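Service request form, structural biology core

Requester: graduate student, group of Dr. S.
Request type: structure prediction, single chain
Budget code: on file
Notes: please return the result as structure tokens.

Sequence provided:
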Amino acid sequence: MKRATFSYLEYRIPSYLVFFYQKVPEHSIPARYIQVLLMFTAILLVFYQRVNLSVAIVALNSLEETTTTNASQPKFHFWGTFSVQLLSGYLGSHYGTVKLLFGCVLGSSLISIGLPFALIYFGFEAFVALRVVQGCAQGIVFPAVYAHLAKWSPLKERSLLGGISQWAWRWDFYVVVY
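Core staff response, request fulfilled:
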């Protein structure tokens, strides 16, 4: 295996990370396309978590809630989503967009796993509270993606990379509908 052309001792890179700092072969996929694929996947996951309640509404009807409660369930998510839009720009500049994006998608996924348990064991109020928190986590995803693209992608490819990453919600829509 070939070694990197620079000395890792100069840059104070730990010896266990030297493998990651070796020279990348020229025929490999550029990192910006891998980043766009990861942002595409993050938006895909967030959208599926947003619409999964529509599938579960049949099970929620079996809990004998009123029809007005079931009709108002999708709006709980958007309360959280809209409440963090302005705050997410500050959080992205303070913590970094990649960490923020990872934390929001992970947190939203864990909340999505816990939603049925919250409804069964703690009632409808806990379900609504978790749905609002999930909306807060998902409301940060789109501004973080835009900020990451603005800082990181080359100017000539910015519209292409942004279009590919934002195509996820359209693709999700067609898969969910059909």
